[in-house]
Fold:
Amino acid sequence: MNFQGKSADASWADVNRDVIRTVGMPGNTYFAWMCLVGLTLAAGLAAWPWQIYVGMGAAGKRTPQMWAMYITTFVFWIGIGHAGTLISAVLYLFRAKWRTSIYRGAEAMTIFAVMTAGLFPLIHAGRMWFAYWLMPYPNQRYLWPNFKSPLVWDVFAISTYLTISLVFFVIGLVPDIAALRDSATGVKRRIYAVLALGWEGSDSQWRHYRRAYGLFAALATPLVLSVHSVVSFDFAMALVPGWHSTLFAPFFVDGAIFSGFAMVLILILPMRYLFDWYTYITDKHLDAMAKLILVTSLVLTYFYACEVFTAWYSGDHFERASVFAKATKQYAWAYWLMYFCNSVVPLIFFWKRARTHVGILYVASILVLIGMWFERFNIIVPGLAHDFYPYTWGTYVPTLTDSAIIVGSFAWFFLLFLGFIRVMPSLSIVEVKEVLAHPLKHPRKHDAHGGGH
Structure:
């Protein structure tokens, strides 16, 4: 299948021009969105000191639900961070050419999603200035992390994933930043010159670049599977009914890829419209993304069925009671909303036209993200609400404080992403050129445009 589509009609100079112009001075619409995002973030930033001053009771936590919306959102953002590395590293190793137009935005999404997720353990801990106690270091109090705890495994898994993803992201940016440097003037040129690390596009530099890029793609690939598996151990290693399951690792990984692709669509569809990138992000790309969402949704539905079946077939009274409570008690609305968004809505992508219809793709992607957030919510909040002992059963009610912080985290993510697309190339100049006709082999197409970096 030819995924190059209309991009084959563009020249190398067209790619330089179309990407570099997105880094210029933004318009009023951009500033209006930044103001909206900034105000939302300010509300979240105001709620956080209030929670520190009043105490964790301001977040609505009560026994037994000491893990609530913060850990729900932490797992959600870690999941969002999965698709970026899958698109950039795994599909790179498989030489999937259709990734070239979308992987830069997906990579940026990964970095910003993991950075957002990293805030929640600090927020959840309350006294965040003691977070360094999680790190192993000699001290006079004889404090030492409990390496048998999956929470400590999280610290190492996520910090490793962020480090490798960040280095991989920066390496991929270097040749494109050099293209920005060559077209910029004044202070911007000096800044881009520093960030380009002396890139001149020599044969030696290209050979080292390719080796480093392939090496980090190989390093990042196993992390795609391992980091969310480790996050799933936070639950699977516990004895809480509904949590103690060997199914959780593949269940979490598939759900992460599923939600990550939905977020990629939410980000690239407005970019395609605002930057007029229809030449590079074609219907073929949208079709491929929709198919991946459909496949991961079907796998996720299979896991949902397995979860219910094993609870029933095990004969364990507590497992059965946990599933029954989720489906019929106070959180039943969240349980059935999850099924609707994650198992029913993606079925529309069996219809070929829906896979390339921008409106349907956007609405379906938003519903998928809602469904995946509630999937994490249904594991944590209803799971803890119906534990072994009836005298500990309780209902968690969100407060204005934790709701403002959760919404503020989305504003923080979009603030980072909006800032990125205005200072860095959000479409890979180098890799998009690789799928175009070479100017020396097809000189006529490039005669009127000249070359590019």
Notes: The chain has a mean pLDDT of 86. The longest helix spans residues 150-183. DSSP finds 16 helices and no strands in the chain.
